[in-house]
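I have been asked to look over a protein record a colleague put together. What it holds is a sequence and that sequence's fold in token form. Please read both lines and tell me whether the tokens look consistent with the sequence. I do not need a full report, just your reasoning and any doubts. This is what I was given:
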Amino acid sequence: MRRKLFWRMVISSILRRRSRVLVAMLAVAIGATTLSGLATITIDVPRQMAREMRASGANMVLLPTGTNTSFSPTVIDEVTADIPRDQLIGVLGIDYEAVIINEMPYVAAGTDLNAAKATNPYWYVDGEWPSDAGQVLLGRDIATTIDAKAGDQVTLAVLADQSQGAASSRSSAQPSTPDDHGGSSDHSDHGSSDHSDHGSSDHSDHGSSDHSDHGSADSGQPNPEQENTGPAKNDDGKVISDQPVGNAAPNAGTQVTLTVSGILETGSSEDGFVYLWTKDMTSLTGTNPVVTVAELSVSAESNQLQELADQINAGHPEIHAQPVARLAHSDANILNMLRSLMVIITVIVLALIMIGVSTTMMAVVTERRTEIGLRKALGADNRSIVTEFLGEAVVLGMVGGIGGAGAGYGLAQLISLNVFHRTVMLHVEILLVTVAASVIVSTLASFIPVHRAVEVDPALVLRGE
């Protein structure tokens, strides 16, 4: 009965001062909306941003270990089977081989071009992506050098030694000694968005003696002085095969004529590569499919990415998993900045709620000084007065918090749809925390006004002073 009477007094007091209380309730609701919306975005958006940022390319590579220059494609299947499906954005296995086009050496990348498109959505293709075997994607630098365009046909032959024939074709595309694997080449040239940080790996060179040299703007221009007497080199004088161009011959007489479906233009090293289907590459080399480097695009933060790499290395000694440090750190920095910004905004909003509620409650106390003095003169103790004012603060916080929590979810949904073109999940725990935070902040904001209420001197108030 007393509790029912208490809440009737609280509700009656609020209704009698609707205008003032409405302002305070609106302040709480706005703060709760911001808090709920930011909390939802903070939890849901990093997950969505992680996937969006994977459009910048792969953030992990798999390289062969030791003196091996390649590994089986089945290893990729084993590795990806251990990665949660919702985290794996794309995977791409590539076989790099040195080839001859128009009597000039280039690097061909045999891969699943559908996977290449999914892993590197930022790639621009003038024309069409290859849809089936027999079609090839030509880098802009190579297309300019040989004056090729979409619809033209190009003939590829593996860069091999005539004296050794097919047996040497694959070795000609690989470094001749294990020491060559320790170079500081840039993996950005292996066909992903930016693998420059892979150079710190002991296996940084793969697929040819120096892929960074294949990817230069003038890739494929042989040095005339060494065209028939020395190893194949590009215009910068970098060796791209240990076989002299003069000895170059098709693999056991095998040549592959392919149709250029599109010209790849990324403004990076990929412009110096020829991308063809794995089926065409195996026809060209006459061997079973192998992988020189595998690129993975994983939706994970930098520490999670490193843990995944360690897990892969422990379970697969034949390969070395290496996160792309620059991309991983960039992703982590962006997400950390987003979280920090949202925390700062949330703190500011909560402070504004406290100011708004405190100001309103202070005005209510001033307005009710006579009532408080009369109640104290009639024997009301400080505890009953404090309880009533705090009860009003709780009601303000609860009503404003409930309305704001729902509006906050709507705000988060609107932001996510407009920015990320995806919906956000409804997190019930966020709604509950928002309401609780609103009640707590409203209560804390009432402490100073309540303290002033209990200090009212009945004698002075009733005398009109």
In short: Residues 65 and 318 are 6 Å apart (CA to CA).
